[in-house]
Design a protein that fits this description.
The chain is an alpha/beta fold. The chain contains 13 helices and eight strands. Helix 1 packs across helix 12 (about 235-250) and helix 8 runs parallel beside helix 9 (about 180-200). The longest helix is centred in the C-terminal third of the chain and has 19 residues, at about 180-200. The two termini are about 25 Å apart.
C-alpha cells in the first residue's frame, strides 16, 4: 500500500505533437521547485523523448531494467536534487507492445521504489496501443493534453472513448496546450467536454491551459526545460499554476491517496 502519500499520475494525448512530453517534464520541474520529490517515467517505449529534451544520453534505460539483476536505482537518472527520471528507449519492438511477463517484471521493480517520492509521473506514448492503454489504467490520475486543432480533439475523444468502454476508466483531467487566449482554451475544453458528456456520459475536469509561447520553442531548441530557462514566461507561469493545482489535489486528498496503491496492477491485454 501507499505509505508515503505518493500521488501517481499519467500525461497522455490522442495524437503526437501536442507538447505532452514537454508539459510533463516542466510540471515535474515546477513541483520540484516547490520542494516536492518527483520521479518521472518515460513510458513512450517506442519513441523516447525525455532524454532528448534534456540533452542527455542515459547509460541505461527501461530495456535494461527488464533484464535480470538490474534494479530501478541502477537506471534512474538524477535531473535535479529530488527529481529523478526513468528513461525509455527507441526502436525496441518488444517494448512497444509489452507482453504480460514484461509488464509484471516492470511493475514489480517500479513499485518497490515509487513510494519514496511525492509524485510518480508517467509520460505515455500517444494513441491507443495496448501498452498505452495498459499504462493509462495504472495511476491515480490521468491528464489528457489537447490543442485547439480539430485533429487533436478528435483523437483525444477517441482515446477517452476506448479507455472508458474497454478499460472502465472514466476520470480524466484536461490541459489545453498552445492556446492563443483564455477564450480559445475555454472553447477547446468545452468542445471536448461536451462530446464526452453527450456521447460517453463522462464529465471531464479542466486543469488549466498553457499559452502558445515562443520562449518554450527556444527552450526546446536549447534542450533546457522551460521552468529552468524562463520560469516567468507566459507558458512558465501557466505550468506553475497547474502544478499548484496538482499539489492542492494531493493535499486535499491525502486520506484517499494513502488508502490506495500507488499503481494498480497491469491489466491483462
Amino acid at each position: 500500500m501507499n505509505r508515503n502519500n505518493t500521488l501517481s499520475l499519467s500525461v497522455m494525448s490522442g495524437k503526437g505533437g501536442v507538447g505532452k512530453t514537454n508539459i510533463i517534464l516542466n510540471l515535474g520541474y515546477a513541483l520540484n521547485m516547490e520542494r516536492m520529490k518527483v520521479m518521472l517515467m518515460d513510458c513512450d517505449l517506442g519513441l523516447a523523448n525525455l532524454d532528448v529534451l534534456l540533452g542527455i544520453s542515459p547509460e541505461r534505460n527501461l530495456h535494461d531494467l527488464l533484464q535480470s539483476g538490474v534494479d530501478t536505482e541502477d537506471v534512474l537518472v538524477c535531473i535535479e536534487e529530488g527529481f529523478d527520471m526513468l528513461p525509455a528507449t527507441s526502436g525496441i519492438p518488444e517494448l512497444v507492445e509489452m507482453d504480460e511477463d514484461l509488464q509484471d517484471i516492470l511493475f514489480r521493480k517500479l513499485i518497490n521504489l515509487a513510494g519514496e517520492y511525492d509524485y510518480l509521473m508517467l509520460d505515455l506514448g500517444a494513441g491507443i496501443s495496448n501498452t498505452v492503454l495498459s499504462f493509462a489504467t495504472l495511476p491515480q490520475l490521468r491528464i489528457v493534453v489537447v490543442t485547439p486543432e480539430p485533429t487533436s480533439l478528435t483523437d483525444s475523444y477517441a482515446m477517452i472513448k476506448v479507455l472508458a468502454t474497454q478499460r472502465g476508466i472514466k476520470d480524466f483531467l484536461v490541459i489545453v496546450n498552445q492556446a492563443t487566449s483564455s477564450a480559445e482554451a475555454a472553447q477547446t475544453f468545452e468542445r471536448l467536454a461536451a462530446a464526452c458528456r453527450n456521447f460517453l456520459g463522462i464529465e471531464l475536469r479542466n486543469l488549466g491551459f498553457i499559452h502558445q509561447d515562443r520562449t518554450l520553442v527556444e527552450a526546446v531548441r536549447r534542450q533546457t526545460p522551460l521552468m529552468k530557462f524562463a520560469p516567468n514566461s507566459p507558458a512558465g507561469k501557466d505550468i506553475s499554476a497547474i502544478a499548484k493545482k496538482i499539489m492542492r489535489y494531493r493535499e486535499d486528498n491525502r486520506e484517499r491517496i494513502s488508502g490506495r496503491p500507488i499503481l494498480k496492477d497491469f491489466p491483462s491485454l
